[in-house]
Amino acid sequence: MADDIHGKRIAFLATDGVEEVEYTEPRKAVENAGGTAELISIKDGEIQALNHLDKAGTYAVDKLVKDAHVASYDALVLPGGVANPDFLRTDPTAVRFVRDFVASGKPVAAICHGPWTLVEAGAVKGRTLTSWPSLRTDVTNAGGTWVDEQVHVDGTLVTSRKPDDLPAFCEQLLAQVAGRA
């Protein structure tokens, strides 16, 4: 991953129940490439990450989604975990932020259950993406095409299935942000 993204700001939208490695690994990739990562959430303070269904670390929220503006960021990352995107997709402010981000044409990267928020935002119709297999019906019912691939890129949308796919996911995220994809 030789991409240099100095000066780029990446929003990570997450809340309680985020799959820890799906937040920490892309964040580390962004920071190692010179970018700035910012944790955006629907709640203030800290969020509780999980390792599958077991409690993992907590992470300080940088900004509430209600105070975040798409124009301030160069890309958006939607980590998974089962609970995290389920909470996000029921929050109108989070859904609007995702919808506006997709409409901006800037890169959006979602992994595992992360695409649930894309479905809720009406952002998968006519798109091809991958996710955790249980989202297949949701993606299809929302007008998208679901594929079983390690990483899939559809324009500026990057998606992956699971934590094992993180190296390819991070590589494509950085390529999008660097403008090389």
From TrEMBL:
Q: Which residues form a coiled coil?
A: none
Q: Name one Pfam family in it.
A: DJ-1_PfpI
DJ-1/PfpI domain location: 8-176
Tell me the domain of life.
Answer: Bacteria
Listed PROSITE patterns: PEPTIDASE_C56_PFPI
* Keywords from the UniProt entry: Glutamine amidotransferase
Q: Which PANTHER family does the record cross-reference, listed alphabetically?
A: DJ-1 PROTEIN (PTHR42733), PROTEINASE (PTHR42733:SF12)
Stated family = Belongs to the peptidase C56 family.
Name of this protein: Glutamine amidotransferase
Q: Which organism is it from?
A: Actinoplanes siamensis
The encoding gene: pfpI
